Amino acid sequence: MEKDSVEFFERLSNCFGPSGFEREALKIMREYVKPYSDRVSVDKLGSLIFEKKGTADAPVILLPGHVDEVGYMVSNITKQGFITFNPLGGWFDQTLLGQRVRIRTSQGDVDGVIASKPPHLLSDEERSKVVKKEHMFIDVGASNEEEVKAMGIRIGNPAVPISLFSMREKKKFKDGKAKGKEIVCFGKAFDDRVGAFAAAETIKILSEKNVKHPNRIVGAATVQEEVGLRGARTTGYITKPDLCITLEIDISGDVPGIEPHQAPTKMGDGPSITTFDGSMIPNADLVEFIMKVADKGKIPYQLSQIARGGTDAGIIHLSHAGCPSVVLNVPTRHIHSHVGVFCMNDLDNCVKLVVDLLKRLDKKTVDGFTTY
Q1: Handedness of CA 303, 307, 308, 311 (dihedral sign)
Q2: pLDDT single digits (tens) 333-348
Q3: What is the CA 196 to chain-centroid distance, rounded?
Q4: Which end of the chain is less crowded, N or C, counting CB atoms within 10 A of the terminal residue's CB?
């Protein structure tokens, strides 16, 4: 991956953008895709839409990836100067304690730490239980309510984890044999800045390499996915796609405690194709088509299922009269936490697969996915 692409992804990962407060991420996306797009627009919920014309106006191929990250919102300020919060998106309580967060206010950003009653003062019964979010608070170093308010903090302020992007090169081994090297990435907001990046990078490659494609490509950086797939609803309505390839992250199941039937994909073994999730059953012919294209291009891939949860495709595949849809993912460890981990090769191969697909998705092919 080119240096400017990596720098763009680093900025995107590090930036501030929980659900409902995605403006910084959207500005970074717009700045990056504008030189490579034929048209850039924004819907009235805030999602960014960027188009690349091909040799035909139809079919319309939508490539959505959401830019909102899981975060927090200030719910109250106590008399002692501590901040209670509500989650923006799904958090597992055990991942929160001791983590640093950044609160955005009209006066600037304020850093703090998520804390709770000290373990030294817990009873034996309390110590044996998981501390719930409602018993946690954010400490910004204040001693009373007035000091917190003087920092500009109020009810409704958003917050995100403090977790800077980094990369590490490592030697890759498989079945005890050396298989070259690969780059592993660490950071926040990979769900789903990885997918948004893949959509932007696809548009860039189509433009820079003058790739011919028999369709009209519409990339989208959607908002508020983590709180109910809300940006997907307006984006699907406006773009009226004939086919949707949602770009996402997958739960990488190669960590202790996970059985293959729970999460079959592994980091470093290629992008995954979702065959079922809680919000959508993908078009079966489209899945077969993607597998054949990947095999022909010798692009590694994995098949995945997620019993719970969903993606933007869950809404978009029902837009208007519906459209054949699928989800392509980059397997990622520790999602919805302060630090995720994924392999850059998987992201690179995901983009390659999308580009190869777009070369082949003409009107006849797309119509064939819903003709019988």
Answers
A1: positive
A2: 999 999 999 999 999 9
A3: 7
A4: C
Question: What backbone torsions phi and psi does residue 58 show, to the nearest 5 degrees?
Answer: -140, 150
210: left (phi over 0), alpha (psi -120 to 50) or beta: left
Query: Cα 255 to chain center, whole Å?
Result: 20
Owning domain of residue 17 = 3-69+164-368
For residue 371, the one-letter residue type is T
pTM for the model: 0.95
pLDDT in tens, 246-298: 999 999 999 999 998 899 999 999 999 999 999 999 999 999 999 999 999 99
In this predicted model, what pLDDT tens digit does every residue of 102-119 receive, in sequence order? 999 999 999 999 999 887
User: 128: domain CATH number?
Assistant: 2.40.30.40
Number of domains in the chain: 2
Instruction: Tell which of 156, 179, 197 closes a domain.
Output: 156
Q: Give one DSSP letter per residue of 297-361, joined into a string.
A: TT---EEEE-SS---THHHHTTSTT---EEEEEEEEES-SSS-EEEEHHHHHHHHHHHHHHHTT-
Q: Which residues are catalytic?
A: 225
CB 342 within 8 A of CB 192: no
Please check whether residues 107 and 209 belong to one and the same domain.
no
Alpha carbon of 240 to those of 57, 119, 217, 311, 318: distances in Å? 13, 54, 12, 18, 11
**What is residue 215's DSSP assignment?**
S
> Whole-angstrom Cα distance, residue 253 to residue 261?
9
Count helices and strands in the chain by DSSP H and E runs: 10, 17
The Cα–Cα gap between 306 and 250 comes to: 9
pLDDT at 126 over 80: no
CA distances from 157 to 15, 74, 78, 137, 259 (A): 16, 5, 15, 14, 39
